[in-house]
Design a protein that fits this description.
Low-confidence stretches: 53-58
CATH class: Alpha Beta
Strand content: 15-25%
Number of helices: 5
Number of domains: 1
């Protein structure tokens, strides 16, 4: 797959707007400000394909990108407390609509900030993905912010924090250094068979 040929397709703010899934899809999921846009930009070798912001909650739509016959979905982040109730309801409806419309999901790339224990929302999302039977990997973002000792400690803690730790692929990733980028691309390509 030639990642340099990525094209932005469209952004959708409500579940009613979402198009049917007609080609294999890769979805990126994670809490607000975990680094989804940074990971997407790194994978595709672009600086501003997906909008990056230091303010959480910037992605409020499902953004679709396409490379050849594969669609990539940048899902809005969850867990941002400063959203209004109506905005939280719209987000829940959008996410439910996305996952319940029988999409051709080949892989969910679930992002978790390596510096911290997974949040209750992270655990809930991972459990949802597992129960729904979607293939997934966990990408631990911001790994470059930890030193060698801290990273080893977090790896050990994750074995008890994540029920699925022994059963799934976990990749440490840094948007700064590019560490883990090739491993994420390999997981995507393997999911496409």
């Amino acid at each position: 797959m030639n990642y340099n040929k990525v094209q932005f397709e469209a952004a959708y703010g409500t579940s009613k707007q979402l198009p049917a899934s007609d080609i294999p899809e890769i979805a990126f999921s994670g809490r607000s400000n975990v680094g989804k846009s940074s990971l997407i930009n790194k994978i595709f070798g672009r600086k501003s394909l997906a909008r990056v912001s230091s303010m959480p909650g910037k992605t409020t739509t499902v953004n679709f990108f396409r490379v050849e016959d594969v669609r990539f979905a940048d899902l809005p982040g969850y867990g941002y407390a400063k959203r209004s109730e109506s905005e939280k309801r719209r987000w829940a409806d959008l996410m439910e609509g996305y996952f319940q419309m029988g999409r051709s999901l080949n892989l969910v790339v679930q992002l978790v900030d390596m510096r911290h224990a997974p949040s209750a929302d992270d655990i809930m999302m991972i459990n949802f993905i597992r129960e729904a039977g979607y293939p997934f990997i966990i990408v631990l973002t911001k790994c470059d912010k930890l030193n060698k000792t801290e990273r080893a400690k977090r790896r050990e803690e994750l074995k008890t924090e994540l029920e699925c730790a022994g059963d799934c692929t976990i990749i440490e990733f840094s948007a700064q250094t590019g560490e883990g980028c090739d491993a994420v691309k390999s997981a995507i390509e393997n999911s496409l068979g």
